[in-house]
Fold these 3 entries.
Entry 1:
Amino acid sequence: MQLRASTALIREACDGRWTASFGARIQVDPVSLGEQFASDGACVDAFRQSPDVTVAGTRVRYGQCVAHLDPMRVDWSNALIATITAQVAPDAAAACSALLPQSLGDAVAKQLTTQSVVLDAEYAQPFKQPEALGEAPSGDTSGQKSSAGGWVRRHLATMATKHDLRIGPPGDGLSLRLASTPGSSTSKSSPELTMLLGVEGSALNLLPERIKQAVTPALPLKIRWDLDHESDLVFVNDQSVQRISVAPRAPGPTVLTAPECGNAVMVPPRSLYFVEADDRGNARDPKQEEALFRALDGANAGAGALVSVFVHGWQHSAAPRDTYVCDYARIVSELEMMENAAASATPRTARKVVGVYVGWPGKLYSNDMANATTFWNRLQAADRLGAEGALLRRVIQGLAQRLPASSQERRADRRSALIVTGHSLGARAVFHAVRDGLPPPANSVSGARRPDLVLLVNPAFSAELYRGIHEQERQCRPIGVPLLSFSSEADVVTRQVYPTGQTLTFDYASQQAALFPEHVYTAANFGEFVTHRLRMQVASGVAPHPEGDQTIVRGFLRVPEGSKKELYSADLATVFKQPKSGYPKAADVWYSMQLNKVHANPNPCPDSGSKVIEVDAQILPNHGTIFTPAFVEYVVRVLNRSILGDVR
């Protein structure tokens, strides 16, 4: 890098005007860093109190995507101010479009890559000295800087920030402002954030449908909230939205009536139990736990129990009319029907099906825009839910301890079984709750029961947390519990939103054990960990609608007569069109789901049952739509292998 400096008292500034002041004008020759970055040079006006930097002709490359940043300006007076104007290179528009989320659609992606983007950023420190940025957070007496995830909070607590993003020309563009103000040091409040979204002209097409309803050219969308939501208030267009307050469900079995779920639950499950946690992960009503454990003790006195635990994720709760409550109740009801049908066919006494819905405050507000501000705050709540001594870990351990040991019954269809499922942040809580109890079986001397199967659907936890399990399985030391992680290829939350936030929380200056990619990407989306892909092939007609009727309700009549083994196949699950009565014919194949290994090389280790599975968007269409007929069909095949055995 070559520099030329002029320190004359009277000199020409970078903008071409003459100045008389102490300082220097520094000219930087063109520079490049491999193929990723190149500039036509830079000019720095270094005044006595502040620098002013202008960078010309900058080009940034990622793969085949190339963007021009011109001009780039940074100056510091009372605040650090940066201005960047970006434009995708015309011949790289297609490559840049391919990097955008598929959910945007081709038309929106094309429009985004043909518009100019201007970013203005301002960082000021009105409350603390610059050296405060390196201080440990309040209450930390270790003398160390805050851990990964803490540096964003540390900066927001010490400076006022403002980011203005503009896409497209005036009158036909989109503007977004995100600003923050440090909280009060006396009240120990968290920083206050404000988002302002404006849109004009054709730029309205860039927005998701849900946001289109909340913003117009004449009325920008304004949202203001506390980072920690300690005030239980969010202001949307200056209207206050208060936190939802709902009483916990009554202890004991719950029958969901038509006013709550309509016709979604055709046969109300006789054994659906709710256990609910507060923000700290503690039980809201300890009697819920007591009633659940009493029911399981009673089931063990009979033919045993099939216990299914479900932990919801972000934007959901155990409140009446929550869609997941009704969807899960329907699944529990159908599990009852299938267990009764299987018992009649054997014959044997049916096991008691117990469904457990673990509720926690995953949804804080009734307003969708207000809830959009809560993801990272709810992530912390999920960690508390799965922590040592918290409700979820206590419930899983209590249920496992009450089930008879598997070795007491050789036939799988006569054993009691515990299946634990978590979705999104609920999967994060489940993983925290069970991972400490997953040592190599050879080293386990306690003999304590663990779940028979753990399902994590679109899980929101980083690959760094899964590294230990991955390495253990690679060394042919299975963890002892089949752990299946499913991630939709169309999941924007864990594939785009989560990595973006994790990028901001990575502490680049600290000596972290985890590498940057393992901190940023979720375990189920981390390429090294993905073991299988689940793909759908439609043989006749169209794929099942994600919110269509479930096809598992017909039990053992869902496959051609004499082909009951189809119901136990998880590597190739075939679904048939259903006649009004009787068995379908072999030619009535509707669609199939094939589970394929990612790596062609044979694994030297025996199959432990644990898998990380990338799922076709036809099966799981997004982050939140998980009770789809196709996915439930596949999960039921997995459950059949686990809790029924290959009985045919």
Entry 2:
Amino acid sequence: FVTLFYHRMLSKQYSSFHLSRVAEREDLLRIKQDWINSCERSNILFPVRVEKEFQKRLSKAGSKGAKAKLNLSKCFLTDETVLLLIDALAISPVISKLDLRGNNLTFQSANSLKRLLIGQMIVLQTIDIDKRLHVAFLGECLLDKSGTITEHILLDIQTLNFVLRKENAKALIRQTYFDNGAPEHIGLDQLANIWTKVIGKENKAAAKKIISDNPLNFLQYDELENIILKELQKTKVIVEITDNDKINIERIMATDNPPVLLNSLPDDDVNDIDLNSDPGNDRLVNDLDAINITHNNDNHVSNNQKQSKFDEIHHDSPPEIVKKENTNSRQSSIQINTIGQK
């Protein structure tokens, strides 16, 4: 069953890119420098091809179409270098695609990557979406199957990618909604603008039909989100989270495999997070409502890893939708870009 399910997942074709953020120079430099420093401390040579990939990304950083991804295929990476990379990526989620194919890696690298994704899943349940609009979760990880990297762990990684990819889409929808004034009632003009920004193609006819078919001639936010997500599924930017996916996520999150905990969000301020908020209904992971996710994070943080503040944070109650000023003052180092843009 697992093998068949795994091949079902790999057979899906996605449009060429789900990324909702533009890679910024500061993010790339931080990851690169942290990775280099870790390699030096461990007496590991920083691969030349990795240096070239960073130079390529840095030359385009901040410009339209500069994707928050790292193509590290065929870079002569080892398990040791990948584990140090994952430590750097754990500082905060700012990369949406990671390609590790063509390297001589084992289960150790795959398992560490899986633990990083589990840590990002914990962020989903811990931090309200309005406080992580600038986050870019790892929505796609490419890794070769090998002798010790089995279909089972690739299945786990791919399943977690599905959820994280969809959360990137939700964050883009939410940010674009705020950019359009966060109206309580979403009319034709707002729907058409949000559709164009998120989907990447203008379709006023579709927007007009959606509004005219609604008895109230306007949409609430939840209706808007569902409509845009369904369109993204049609264009294969994201996939529907199935019952089998949910079962697998519950199994993954319930294991004793300790997550790689994230130390911060990009440009995050610890004072922005309410550590004393009461647990409430969590609107962050609607796809996982039926999943009882538990983790015992005690005593699982390695000696060289900083303790994350996230393991002390309770669930926030669902926020009221309020209008936000269209300003760059609170923008993080990651900007919004069209989700379906190649």
Entry 3:
Amino acid sequence: MAKASEERSMTSRIAKRLFHTGLLALALGLAGCEVKSNPTQEESIPGTPRLPEVAKMDIQADGPGLGKAVYTKWCSICHSDGPGYPGTVALTERYKGTEISGVLLKRTDLDPDFIKGVVRGGLFNMPNFRKTEISDAELDALANYLASSK
């Protein structure tokens, strides 16, 4: 009986030591780790394609170039002329077999009210833009710019 009690005591001590050793190893392992909740693009997973950055520019509240400035900052990243622009690619595919261009700046059929509705509500894969991103004045200028950019 004493032998069984001794064995249980020995097993208990070994289990405690293993448990504490495991905790120590875990603590040391975590101490060497730096956890970031929001890594930058430079720190992202290798091989992941970089997303293009929105043009960094200040848009003036008024002026003759406001529509173009809004287009350059918010729209050109997806809707410029060329194969690498997802908005242009999608519109080109959508209007394949018609006279309508997939390039926004080459469109002759765009109505300012339609442009405003698409910008505020989004369409297909295009996201909507809130008033905190594109103000009403900026949207008016953008809609007029695109409607007259034939």
